[in-house]
Design brief:
CATH topology of chain A: oxygen-dependent coproporphyrinogen oxidase
Shape of chain A: globular
Largest interface: A-B, 33 and 33 residues
Number of helices of chain A: 10
CATH superfamily of chain A: Coproporphyrinogen III oxidase, aerobic
Helix content of chain A: 40-55%
Order of helices and strands of chain A: HHEEEEEEHEEEHHEEEEHHHHEH
Number of domains of chain A: 1
Oligomer: homodimer
Number of strands of chain A: 14
Chain lengths: 334, 334
């Protein structure tokens, strides 16, 4: 870690280095917050690429650092996965970025076809599943991408957001989570919250189930339509907001009583979460298909225990049905 | 069901009707075999499409019959899903089949563009997960597709196969399962077993895990490179072989002792099975993406309980490692 922080200090002035530090702090702060609540140290594993492009264990190397933290079977948390990535690299010749996607350079552009493209990427992503079914699952991810030195128009973008997936709906928790994120957005632009709240409901949607994954939050991708300093500040504020948005909910719900039926419903909902990750999550699919990300890291976001049953429609007017009603009809929480 | 069987008798002479009957018998026979072992009646649900293209419960209607059978939490079986489909329909104008895929008609073909294409499809698919981790999971599916009346060259195909997914490896079980399937193949063509065994190893492969799903069996798709009567007989023989290939293994293993560690490993392997279904299974992806198959039916093949853990690599020389070794290096079993 020391190496990264020293590098950050040396290269203080670039946005890449500053956002790398913001995302590292987010990774570190969330790790500590989770360890404090659970009373358990997270398992840590770092990865680097050897010369033959095999993922091997290692602290950091040649501008590529993957650090995973994980917890399984904790006192409060069933499964937690955190990933930090900072990567400088070269795209293969003939490939470039189009928004958030890696695509072939247009065939007429011979010059671009022949040179490889340097890029810088950094990201922190976190998924938190608790033991108690009254505690919602949370996901947060912020990321920055840059081609070359990021000075060309359209050569950089931010992505990310945070969202909440209750097993049982406590409306006050959804309101709190959204309120904290709305305040973070409003510090920068009053149009951000409604825009990214809607985007979140649209992105975390399972069409085959006609359900949103949860009660939403924020989501944005390929964000570059404002001054880079403005967006940097906005992402920094959001990355700091997550702990305030989520941890008080964990504290409030973690010791509530629950039944075997509640636990069964939790595992069914974990099944839906697994469906979203494996069928729809763009980052996961890219990670697995590209082969350039370590599988163990990509799937660090999977839930701990998932159930499937042929019949899983809840009984009318039950607490379970109340959740599904909200997932099928996203609400304005604040 | 009566209605279907009567229809079968009336249309005795077409291949479509004969294979429909073969697949119905397979569905029915496997259902009864599972009920006999478990001592539990399978839950049954039939579906049809209403005029507004909503899936509703119903026995059968207008040439479309979906029948699902399911069991969860049985005496022997943790989760069983069986699907029977028989469907006559019209593809939308401008669409046709190219092998096993529905694709747009080539734009120059104005005549084909303007008419809708009639098709007939029938399939039985089964996934069986047992409680005892010593009992392997099994999957079997046979299907027939036809455009128009199936008299044009290339206007019909068969697909399917059966494969075995052990949690713990008993080599004699893998040998038995393959032996029965090899004998079924050899009755028709000595080249079938090696060809479809290899295809199975290739299809049921998780590239992100560098593992086969299980110890294989048979797999083929878009099969039309022989006389239709020959292939009909071959598929009929295979569809009848499954019970002989699998049920004796269940009988042999279902009362073996096991530990909590065995159960944990079983659930991790179920996680891999879920990954295959959601990431790679072509039929599942088509079913979910197309929206023309009921989601509850498509996902009837999901495992019951799945676990994920950041670290799930087995200890060297353990029984768990022995399984993974075989999944990474498919063997010739017979």
């Amino acid at each position: 870690m020391v190496q990264i922080l020293e590098n950050n200090t040396e290269k203080q002035l670039t946005i890449g280095t500053r956002i790398e530090k913001v995302l590292w702090d987010m990774f570190d702060n969330i790790s500590h917050a989770l360890e404090d609540i659970d009373g358990t140290q997270l398992q840590e594993q770092s990865w680097t690429l050897d010369e033959k492009y095999q993922w091997i264990e290692g602290e950091s190397s040649n501008g590529i650092t993957y650090i995973d933290k994980a917890l399984r079977g904790g006192n409060v948390f069933e499964k937690v996965g955190l990933n930090y990535v900072s990567k400088q690299g070269q795209l293969p010749p003939g490939m470039t970025f189009q928004g958030a996607d890696i695509v072939p350079v247009e065939s007429g552009d011979e010059k671009a076809n022949q040179k490889s493209t340097s890029f810088f990427a950094t990201s922190t992503s976190v998924v938190i599943n608790a033991n108690n079914p009254m505690v919602p699952t949370a996901h947060v991810n912020y990321r920055y991408f840059q081609i070359g030195d990021g000075t060309e128009p359209g050569s950089w973008w931010f992505g990310g957001g945070g969202d909440l997936t209750p097993i049982y709906l406590f409306e006050e928790d959804a309101v709190h989570f959204h309120q904290v994120h709305k305040e973070a957005c409003d510090k920068h632009n009053s149009e951000y919250y409604p825009r990214f709240k809607k985007w979140c409901d649209q992105y975390f949607y399972l069409p085959h189930r006609s359900e949103c994954r949860g009660v939403g939050g924020l989501f944005f991708d390929n964000l570059q339509d404002d001054n880079i300093e403005t967006l940097f500040s906005f992402v920094k504020t959001c990355s700091e907001a997550f702990i305030r948005a989520y941890i008080p909910i964990v504290e409030k719900r973690k010791d509530m009583e629950f039944t075997e039926q509640n636990k069964y419903w939790q595992r069914l909902r974990r099944g839906r979460y697994a469906e979203f990750i494996l069928l729809h999550d763009r980052g996961v699919r890219f990670g697995l298909d590209s082969g350039i990300v370590n599988t163990q890291s990509v799937l660090n976001c999977m839930p701990g225990e998932a159930f499937w049953n042929y019949s899983d429609e809840p009984v009318s007017d039950s607490p379970e049905a109340k959740l599904v009603e909200v997932l099928r009809n996203p609400r304005e929480w604040v």
